[in-house]
Amino acid sequence: MKMTEKRACCFTGHRVLPKDKENILQEKLEAMIETLIEKGVTMFNCGGARGFDTVAALTVIKLRRKHEHIRLHLEIPCLNQTKGWSDEDIHKYNFVMQNSDTMKTKLAGYETGCMHERNRALVDGSDLCIAFLTKNSGGTFYTVNYAKEKKLEIINLAELI
Q1: What is the distance between the alpha carbons of residues 37 and 41, in angstroms, rounded to a whole number?
Q2: Helical H segments across the chain, by residue range
Q3: Residue 85: which of 119, 51, 131 has the closest Cα?
Q4: At 36, which CATH number?
Q5: Is 53 helix (H, G, I), strand (E, B) or coil?
Q6: In the prediction, which pLDDT does 5 show?
Q7: Where is 107: in which H helix or E strand?
Q8: pLDDT per position in the chain (161 positions), as tens?
Q9: Which of 28, 134, 152, 159 has its CA 20 to 30 A from that of 19?
Q10: Strands of the 128-132 sheet, one edge to the other
Q11: In 3D, which of 61, 56, 62 has the Cα closest to residue 100?
């Protein structure tokens, strides 16, 4: 599939981001999303987790002011996803939920495997994946590998900063 034919992008990344690279990561992410919008991507699929997911969702919301035709879809693994989160993270999560265009929730409560199920749904609904992957383990690594299996184009921002 040529880049110009791609219409949906998902995000995956670590929950803890390097403090010393937050600004450059934000700049690279915003520039990449802008480029994808120019190439015809209109749907951005996000899992709503802390860290990279939140940064990505907030960036799409910001860019939607300029590009009114783009959409943010949240794929939430369970309704109590925020259990144990800080007040600041919950506030950001609620803002993202209120400003998403569509949302799908898998389960009412956490169950083993619900995060992987959410990640697979993100990939299955996308043509390409923007990742922030710095280690070869965990949910982000699993999701990037699943995206590779599904032949999605992967853009790992960790390689660009």
Answers
A1: 5
A2: 22-38, 52-64, 87-98, 114-124, 138-149
A3: 51
A4: 3.40.50.450
A5: helix
A6: 59
A7: strand 102-107
A8: 344 456 999 999 988 787 888 888 999 999 999 999 999 999 999 999 999 999 999 999 999 999 999 999 999 999 999 999 999 999 999 999 999 999 999 888 888 999 999 999 999 999 999 999 999 999 999 999 999 999 999 999 999 88
A9: 152
A10: 102-107, 71-78, 43-46, 8-13, 128-132, 153-156
A11: 61
Question: How would you label 90-109 residue by residue, b for 16+ Cβ within 10 Å and e otherwise?
Answer: eebbeebeeebeeeeebbee
What is the amino acid identity at position 104?
K
Domains of the chain: total: 1
Residue 85: Cβ-neighbour burial (10 angstroms; 0-12, 13-18, 19+): middle
- Residue 160, phi then psi, degrees to nearest 5: -105, -5
Residues 6+ apart with CB under 8 A from 40: 4, 5, 6, 7
Can you give the pLDDT at residue 1? 38
Which domain does 18 fall in, by range?
3-159
Which amino acid belongs to residue 40?
G
Q: Do 156 and 131 touch, CB atoms closer than 8 A? A: yes
What are 67's two structure tokens?
Answer: 């590009």
Which one, of 152, 157, 133, lies nearest residue 15 by Cα? 133
Amino acid (one-letter) located at 34: E
